[in-house]
Specification:
- It contains eight helices and nine strands.
- The chain is an alpha/beta fold.
- It has a single domain, classed as Rossmann fold.
- A seven-stranded mixed sheet has the order 4-5-3-6-2-7-8, sandwiched between helices. Strands 1-9 form a two-stranded antiparallel ribbon.
- A hairpin with a 5-residue loop joins strand 4 and strand 5.
- Helix 1 packs across helix 2.
- The chain starts with a strand and ends with a strand.
């Protein structure tokens, strides 16, 4: 699978309207994300992908913004029914940023206090649903490795065309890597000029080549003045096994 290098534009810090963090008025940003989403959708169909986790090495790389924009673009085509799951059970701002009710969410469902239907919210695009993380907890291991979570994935696989899981960064906690056996693959978000290359390499190694679908780059490339001339011909290729 090939994932394009994607330049990430800084989005407005003020969010007066619901979801404005994820509704950029930058035409280049939007066009690049449409391009990325189209290529991702092609590979979803080609390889039979359904449940994909989006992660990063550390916090602050643009993982959540990237995940939400990908989900919105996929749903807006009308070809895919998309579920976005906030799987950062320890620390998440997704519900607040999307202006959706945070409770109940994944924690409550996995804990057995609510049904799955109680957790699903309408997203920012037709055909997009969102499940918030719910109450933030520290003891997550039993929740994400138990039979309840496996049953959850089986149920939503039958109900949606694409499931995107916005997961915690890999380096601080082990939650994301616990998903390796139950998701179809990972997209690793990497912020140029921000994340130490050693941590980026470590994250790729932790995910493992068989599960790494590709790397989504955020931020400026060196010699950014020539960036646009290079953009459409430059891709990250999945390493050969």
């Amino acid at each position: 699978m090939k994932i394009p290098f994607l330049k990430h534009f800084e989005l407005p810090s003020e969010k007066p309207n619901r979801g404005s963090l994820f509704r950029s008025t930058d035409l280049i940003f939007n066009e690049q994300f449409k391009n990325f989403s189209a290529r991702f959708e092609y590979n979803v169909d080609l390889r039979g992908l359904k449940a994909v986790a989006v992660t990063s090495s550390i916090a602050g790389e643009g993982k959540t913004v990237s995940t939400v924009n990908l989900a919105m673009n996929l749903a807006s085509t009308g070809r895919k029914k998309v579920l976005l799951v906030d799987f950062d059970l320890r620390k998440s701002d997704l519900a607040r940023e999307l202006r959706i009710t945070p409770l109940p969410g994944m924690v409550e469902y996995l804990g057995g206090s609510v049904s799955l239907g109680d957790t699903v919210r309408d997203g920012l695009a037709k055909g997009l649903h969102v499940i918030p993380s719910g109450t933030q907890v520290d003891a997550t291991w039993d929740l994400i490795t138990g039979d309840k979570f496996r049953a959850f994935l089986k149920e939503i696989r039958d109900a949606y065309d694409v499931i995107l899981l916005d997961t915690p960064p890999i380096i601080p906690v082990s939650d994301t890597l616990a998903l390796r056996e139950v998701v179809d693959g990972f997209i690793l978000v990497y912020r140029l000029g921000y994340t130490p290359h050693t941590l980026f390499r470590r994250a790729m190694e932790d995910i493992g080549v068989p599960k790494l679908l590709g790397v989504l780059l955020n931020g400026e490339e060196p010699e950014s003045g020539r960036y646009y001339q290079r953009y459409y011909g430059k891709y990250y290729k999945k390493p050969e096994v």
